[in-house]
Write a structure and sequence with these properties.
The protein contains 11 helices and 9 strands. It has about 325 residues and is of the alpha/beta class.
Length: about 325
């Protein structure tokens, strides 16, 4: 289901996109509405738009991410920007240069946008203090991943027609997931009722601070939900053993048809990827075109990142 929007004039007040905190409902709806227009543009034969002609986008990724980096690169190029992908493995950072030194060096080159993905929470905010251009958080540690939450919201709205009043279950490694944190903030801001489902070892402390309801039982957590989102185990952020075994984890917390039957009959399935089949979700469900909207999320990611750059572009306010 697609919601038609006319993208009304809106004075987007932010210089950066560092997280969901600080965004109002109007800010979020502005991004979603502008993205709706880009979804339609991206489905046309000619996908180019000269909005960012003469602008420079730097993708500064300290962590690998095929989906996020490619999505930002494609978004920038479709808007006419010059896009530079910095390979950190071959950069001065690997030789001991600090993030601040890197920021000052890049700033001297006068970029217009920097997308930063970093294993340490707060790195994009630190970078934003040192540069004159717009900084977009492409994921920082276990903190936030705002554009992922925005593309998830756009996917949900297009399929359900709304977000307010929906019941959404986020299942998996909640403790280490920046996607979970951004989605908890964004979906509750937009009026959804959010359940988080995880084993005790992977549950966040004080879930009530996010306005969400925690569950350890998968079937109870997704009961009567409109949307079920699965998350992978973030093994790269784990020190020690958080689950007994992959087999036991899937038995209790992996999404399969038996557990999915507890959600609403028309519930949709989201996953930010990468999908670990047979661990967070059964392959049959991941590929079910009646329930899974995982590939739609990938499509919406390009449009959301175009919309964010559109609204952060200092010479283009809509």
């Amino acid at each position: 289901m697609s919601t038609k929007n006319t993208a009304p004039k809106y004075n987007y007040p932010h210089r950066h996109l560092l997280g969901i905190d600080g965004l109002s409902r109007d800010d979020v709806y502005a991004i979603l509405d502008v993205a709706e227009d880009y979804v339609e543009k991206n489905r046309q034969l000619d996908k180019k738009h000269p909005l960012l002609k003469g602008r420079t986008l730097i993708n500064l990724f300290f962590e690998d991410s095929t989906r996020t980096r490619t999505s930002f690169e494609l978004a920038g190029k479709r808007l006419g920007a010059d896009v530079i992908n910095m390979s950190v493995s071959n950069s001065s950072v690997k030789k001991g240069e600090t993030l601040i030194d890197t920021a000052m060096t890049l700033n001297a080159m006068h970029p217009d946008f920097i997308v930063v993905r970093h294993p340490e929470s707060g790195a994009p905010e630190l970078l934003a203090r040192k540069v004159n251009c717009a900084v977009i958080n492409g994921g920082d540690g276990s903190h936030e991943h705002p554009t992922q939450a925005l593309l998830d919201a756009l996917t949900i709205r297009r399929h359900k027609g709304k977000i307010e009043g929906l019941k959404v279950a986020i299942c998996g490694d909640i403790l280490h997931s920046r996607v979970a944190r951004s989605n908890m903030k964004l979906l509750t801001l937009l009026g959804a009722k959010v359940h988080i489902v995880a084993p005790p070892t992977l549950m966040i402390a004080c879930p009530e601070a996010y306005g969400v309801t925690p569950f350890h039982d998968m079937r109870k957590g997704i009961s009567d939900c409109d949307v079920v989102m699965t998350l992978r185990l973030q093994t790269e952020r784990m020190n020690g053993s958080f689950v007994p075994s992959n087999r036991e984890y899937f038995h209790f917390w992996g999404l399969d048809r038996e557990k999915m039957a507890h959600a609403k009959p028309d519930a949709i399935i989201l996953d930010p990827g990468p999908i670990i089949r047979g661990l967070q979700i059964d392959s049959e469900l991941a590929d079910d075109i009646e329930r899974s909207v995982i590939l739609d999320q990938v499509e919406m990611g390009v449009a959301i990142r175009q919309a964010v750059m559109h609204l952060l572009n200092p010479h283009e306010k809509i």
